[in-house]
Amino acid sequence: MFFVILAHQKFVMRKIQMVDLQTQYQFIKPKVDAGIQEVLSTAQFINGPAVKDFQAKLEAYLGLKHVIPCANGTDALQIAMMGLGLKPGDEVITADFTFAATVEVIALLGLTPVLVDVLPDTFNIDPDAIEKAITPKTKAIVPVHLFGQAADMNRIMDIATAHNLYVIEDNAQGIGSTFTDKQGNRVKTGGIGHVGSTSFFPSKNLGCYGDGGAIFTNDDDLAHALRGVVNHGMYKRYHHDVVGVNSRLDSLQAVVLNEKLKLLDFYNERRKWAAIRYTQLLHGHAKIETPVTSGDCDSHVYHQYTLKIVGADRDALVQHLQQNDIPCGVYYPIPLHLQKAYADSRYLEKDFVVTNQLVDQVISLPMHSELDEEQIQFICTTIRSFLD
């Protein structure tokens, strides 16, 4: 009788979510719960064994000498700049089309943010725009591996070397992506520049269940400086050698990250599969430009799957998707150079042609490792039917 009832029930598609953290948690629940219980039992909440274990495992995964965990991705960027000894008035070049945290820390430290345009296909910082923006006061470049795709690090490192500049990689959206350098070496993003940073915000490809972040480097002296900065400037308790901050990854978050790190490549492959299916179902529509991947398929881990809507009302599409219970996002609706906090009379609209177009065109679709074929087909059918 039970099977007869099931046979007559209408199959209901799983609710579509922008990021499905609940389903992801169920898969790793036993190990996460056991690890959290161990931390609670031992009460080693700060810098406990789980943190040290995660640090070592992430170093091995990234192929780097030093990973310095911290409290969040914004802190990671700030600490990286503090560790490099950047001083107020120094100019730091970064992309106009990104989340505000990248420029926020530059301003917080009294440095001078210099925003430049991005490329129309990858949405990453434009190396030509970087070169044009360099002045005698320029000290660093912050490329953002936006939406999970590696920026053009060959060009960026060449520019930095030519002008004696630091490169600070904002890898908050790109952890796990691989870049192939001019020598054919395959390097994980975050470990190409002088220092890299990332965020473990829950929705990231490698996310914890709260806030978390990390700084990466192969430079021993810089790593030493960074370890002092994250811990109130202390190398020896109550001896404050440098000005620092209080920014630590707690043991509970490290437990979660240890379990998720084991699955990071699997998560990223699942995201790539979802991206391929989206592109197969949406490519060729006159009003849709699907994402472009530079380099090989490992250079993009699809933190976001972002379309450009051309010749149609993007905002009307957003509303239509929401009415059909399909979440979506516009990352980012206002360029940084037009944000009140970062407005500067030096900026000219002619220098931000691509960014100004993207803010009206981009739309990011649900993207996570738990998406299934039925959900993707429903999303794509809904989009095409609206734009047809």
How much strand?
Answer: 5-15%
CATH topology of the largest domain: Aspartate Aminotransferase, domain 2
Q: What do the pLDDT scores average to?
A: 95
Kindly state the number of beta strands: 14
CATH architecture of the largest domain: 3-Layer(aba) Sandwich
SSE series:
HHHEHEHEHEHEEEEEHEEHHEEHHEH
Morphology: globular
CATH class of the largest domain: Alpha Beta
Integer tally of domains = 2
State Rg.
Answer: 22 Å
Spatial order of the strands forming the largest sheet: 1-9-8-5-4-2-3
Taking the alpha carbons of the first and last residues, their distance comes to 45 Å
Low-confidence stretches: 1-10
Structural descriptors:
14 strands, 2 domains, single chain, seven-stranded mixed beta sheet, disordered N terminus, three-stranded antiparallel beta sheet, 13 helices, Aspartate Aminotransferase, domain 2, Aspartate Aminotransferase, domain 1, alpha/beta, 15% strand, 388 residues
Task: Report on this structure.
With 388 residues, the chain is of the alpha/beta class. The protein folds into 2 domains: 24-261, Aspartate Aminotransferase, domain 2, CATH 3.40.640.10; 264-387, Aspartate Aminotransferase, domain 1. It contains 13 helices and 14 strands. It has helices at residues 2-8, 21-42, 49-62, 73-83, 101-108, 127-133, 153-163, 220-230, 251-261, 264-282, 314-323, 353-361, 373-387; strands at residues 66-70, 91-95, 112-116, 138-142, 166-170, 178-180, 186-188, 195-199, 213-217, 234-236, 239-240, 288-289, 305-309, 362-365. The strands form 4 sheets. A 7-stranded mixed β-sheet has the order 1-9-8-5-4-2-3, with helices on both faces. Helix 3 runs parallel beside helix 9. It is globular. It starts with a helix and ends with a helix.
